[in-house]
């Protein structure tokens, strides 16, 4: 762990307002002048760190810029998700960057954020608008030892993790529209794009791409009617760094649950948050349109639909409309 991240982690320790300089130098095993130099550098990056002669250092404000150190300072040291974090000012798509990392053999858990994306993509080949500094646009590399048919579990797990993180960081109570949309007051504020490379029997790697409209104040054209942001819904600017760190922690927890065969618990939480179950729906899978009653979530994360002909059909993706 680098020194900046350790300093931030200590200054952010729960319940601490000030940390004496002597405690920092002792716990970090560094001389005072090195500590002072690092704190100066961090101040230049926008961290508001004050020093009171009697009480010590305090982190008053973290800049509204995604820095790998400030995000990782919020994670458990043994967390898989976020074991490496890269932040780009701009990139085509964070999922493309993660794909390149995956092909190069990067270990699972790597996360790539971008302040803005020039070719952000959503499901079904749609464009994902990713303006600078207004959202969280990031992708996570995972290498689960699971069959490709279970990939939907990750979309479900990511949706639950994102809801938990938003609840922790705001007063908002999001809902989920199967399989990957996060909603507030019926409008979408976040989406998840799960992509994978697999052998017939096992996933080689999986890329979870997550986009959250955090502090966006305006949406172009037809998006105005269907999209929203955390800031628009809460009336308050949301701390993106805190949300990013909390979400990576929740993703790590959810991934541990999947590895520990506890997907069922996540699925139950997902079901309690889902606006789709129990409704009459039309699902366009590309090949056909399934109409019926959204009955339940299956063990692999797919949606079970009781069709108008009484058959139970399983769906893993598509464009869903509540009718
Ligand atoms: C959807 O709802 O259609 C999924 C949207 C996923 C958007 C995210 S933003 C980060 C990552 N990079 C991309 O190009 N897409 C995903």
Number of DSSP helical runs: 10
Fraction of residues in H or I helices: 25-40%
Which sequence of strands runs across the widest sheet? 3-4-5-9-8-7-6
N to C succession of SSEs: HHHEEHEHEEHEEEEHHHHEEEEE
What do you see in this structure?
The protein has 323 residues and is an alpha+beta fold. Helices cover 32% and strands 28% of the residues. The strands form three sheets. The chain has a seven-stranded mixed β-sheet, with helices on both faces. A hairpin with a 4-residue loop joins strand 8 (187-198) and strand 9. The longest helix is centred in the last third of the chain and has 20 residues, at 240-259. The structure holds biotin (BTN). Biotin is lined by residues 93-95, 117, 120-123, 126, 128, 130, 137-139, 180-181, 191-193, 209-211.
Properties at a glance:
32% helix; 7-stranded mixed β-sheet; 10 helices; alpha+beta; 14 strands; single chain; binds biotin; 323 residues; 5-stranded antiparallel β-sheet; elongated
List the helices and strands and how they pair.
Layout: H1 3-11, H2 21-28, H3 32-44, E1 48-52, E2 56-61, H4 68-72, E3 84-91, H5 94-103, E4 110-117, E5 135-142, H6 152-169, E6 175-177, E7 181-184, E8 187-198, E9 203-213, H7 223-226, H8 230-234, H9 240-259, H10 263-273, E10 280-284, E11 289-297, E12 303-307, E13 312-315, E14 319-322
Parallel strand pairs: 3-4
Antiparallel strand pairs: 1-2, 4-5, 5-9, 6-7, 7-8, 8-9, 10-11, 10-14, 11-12, 12-13
Helix pairs in contact: 6-9, 6-10
The chain binds biotin.
Biotin binds at residues 93-95, 117, 120-123, 126, 128, 130, 137-139, 180-181, 191-193, 209-211.
């Amino acid at each position: 762990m680098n020194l900046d991240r350790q300093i931030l982690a200590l200054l952010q320790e729960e319940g601490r307002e000030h940390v004496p300089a002597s405690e920092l130098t002792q716990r970090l095993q560094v001389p005072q002048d090195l500590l002072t130099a690092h704190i100066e550098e961090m101040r230049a990056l926008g961290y508001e760190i004050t020093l009171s002669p009697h009480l010590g250092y305090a982190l008053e404000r973290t800049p509204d810029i995604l820095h790998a150190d400030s995000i990782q300072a919020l994670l458990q040291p043994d967390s898989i998700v976020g074991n490496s974090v890269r932040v780009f000012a701009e990139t085509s798509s964070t999922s493309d960057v993660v794909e390149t990392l995956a092909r190069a053999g990067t270990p699972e858990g790597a996360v790539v954020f971008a302040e803005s994306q020039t070719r952000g993509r959503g499901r079904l080949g749609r464009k994902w608008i990713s303006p600078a500094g207004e959202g969280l646009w990031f992708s996570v590399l995972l290498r689960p030892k699971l069959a490709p048919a279970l990939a939907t579990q990750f979309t479900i797990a990511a949706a639950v993790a994102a809801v938990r993180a938003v609840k922790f960081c705001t007063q908002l109570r999001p809902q989920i529209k199967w399989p990957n949309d996060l909603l507030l007051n019926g409008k979408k504020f976040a989406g998840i794009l799960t992509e994978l490379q697999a052998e017939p029997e096992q996933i080689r790697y999986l890329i979870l791409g997550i986009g959250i409209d955090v502090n966006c104040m305006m949406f172009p054209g037809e998006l105005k009617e269907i999209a929203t942001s955390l800031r628009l819904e809460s009336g308050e600017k949301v701390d993106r760094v805190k949300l990013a760190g909390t979400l990576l922690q929740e993703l790590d927890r959810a991934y541990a649950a999947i590895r520990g065969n506890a997907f069922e618990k996540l699925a139950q939480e997902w079901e309690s948050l889902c606006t789709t179950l129990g409704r009459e729906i039309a699902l366009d899978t590309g090949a056909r349109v399934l109409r019926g009653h959204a009955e339940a979530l299956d063990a692999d994360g797919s949606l079970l639909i009781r069709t108008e002909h009484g058959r139970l059909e399983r769906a893993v993706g598509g464009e869903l409309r509540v009718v």
